[in-house]
């Protein structure tokens, strides 16, 4: 009966890609059908069957957009390449701009590259801070107590970098964005970085000398002269 229901609906083309995926998943999970058997039975290629089944692993907002016909299955696959915290926003951008699959794929790759660059930048900052802490730990107790006074002096010459960076908006860095509190980085950058939840609902790190000193994601703000 499950086979007949899927087949009849496919013939009438009344199934959207997500419903089609659920029909295939039912045959796979309940009756142990392989992707090859499903493809042969419903006159699909194995790649199409696999693509439909992958839809069930995507975030629900993306699945809903596919079910409503706002995104194609190919668009959804391209969006799923992006970092998970960026996917919903990318999906909305694609829907609003009616962006092609090829362009969507490139946008997802750009987000991945940006995410990797951000991670490398934060690791760079953390490693420099750890190195500084090791050097400070070799000082006597009196100098360690003065660490909070020493740090701003060491890094004061990077104030220009903080103030001129395009990602510094009202004192917080928009170059690094987290949907949830970034506990790992809070721990790694303790005593040097301040994290807070902003009006956009995301977590950001405060832009200031010690953090910005070693940041490789820095971009100078373009100014126009009248």
Describe it.
This protein has 226 residues and is an alpha+beta fold. It has two domains: 2-106, Arc Repressor Mutant, subunit A; 109-213, no CATH class. It is 62% helix and 7% strand. The protein has 13 helices and four strands. The protein has a four-stranded antiparallel sheet. A hairpin with a 5-residue loop joins strand 3 (195-197) and strand 4 (203-206). The longest helix is centred in the middle third of the chain and has 37 residues, at 101-137. It is elongated, with a radius of gyration of 25 Å.
Mind sketching the topology for me?
Layout: H1 2-11, H2 17-31, H3 35-41, H4 46-55, H5 60-67, H6 73-79, H7 84-97, H8 101-137, H9 141-145, H10 147-155, H11 159-164, E1 168-169, E2 172-178, H12 183-188, E3 195-197, E4 203-206, H13 209-213
Antiparallel strand pairs: 1-2, 2-4, 3-4
